[in-house]
Design goal:
Layout: E1 11-18, E2 24-31, E3 37-43, E4 50-52, E5 58-60, H1 63-73, H2 81-97, E6 102-104, H3 105-119, H4 121-131, H5 137-152
Parallel strand pairs: 4-6
Antiparallel strand pairs: 1-2, 2-3, 4-5
């Protein structure tokens, strides 16, 4: 595991606990180089799904990448770590349920946006701006107007 502080690749595990959902393990680690302490979460990935990216590249489905994207969208928002974990769990569950072995990044992005929209609309717009590659302010305004229209319905 690479230290987020100094980049050194050697650490020691200080504490290990089962997650609240009993489906993950939380490990407290300490870098042997600089002494920085950090937490990692391990989950079982029960799917062999392959994500087909926009450029045609293929990579294994990685719930940690989904978690990272959601966490960035929720930065400085009133969204708890438990809510983020639940969104990732919902998305992973949906990916596991589909019979196809290959899924598109588009499908994965839409699943993520649906989860975010239910939890925090600002985080949803943040994620959508990156995912849909907004080019200007007008695209932000259109997305926000779309959200406002959905709320009125």
């Amino acid at each position: 595991m690479k230290c987020p502080q100094c980049g050194h690749e050697d650490d020691k595990v200080i504490d290990t606990r089962v997650g609240r959902d009993a489906e993950s393990i939380r490990r407290r680690r300490e870098c042997v180089n600089c002494g920085y302490r950090f937490t990692t979460h391990e989950i079982v990935v029960r799917t062999d799904a392959i994500v087909v990216k926009r450029d045609g590249a293929r990579e294994e489905f990685n719930p940690e990448k989904v978690h990272s994207g959601i966490r960035m969208a929720c930065w400085k928002r009133p969204v708890s770590e438990e809510q983020i974990d639940q969104m990732v769990k919902n998305i992973t569950g949906e990916v596991e349920r589909i019979p196809e072995r290959e899924i598109t990044s588009h499908y994965l992005g839409e699943l993520t946006m649906a989860e975010l929209q239910n939890v925090d609309q600002v985080a949803y717009v943040r994620f959508a701006s990156v995912y849909r590659r907004f080019k200007d302010v007008d695209q932000f305004v259109q997305e926000i107007q779309s959200l406002a229209h959905q709320d009125k319905s």
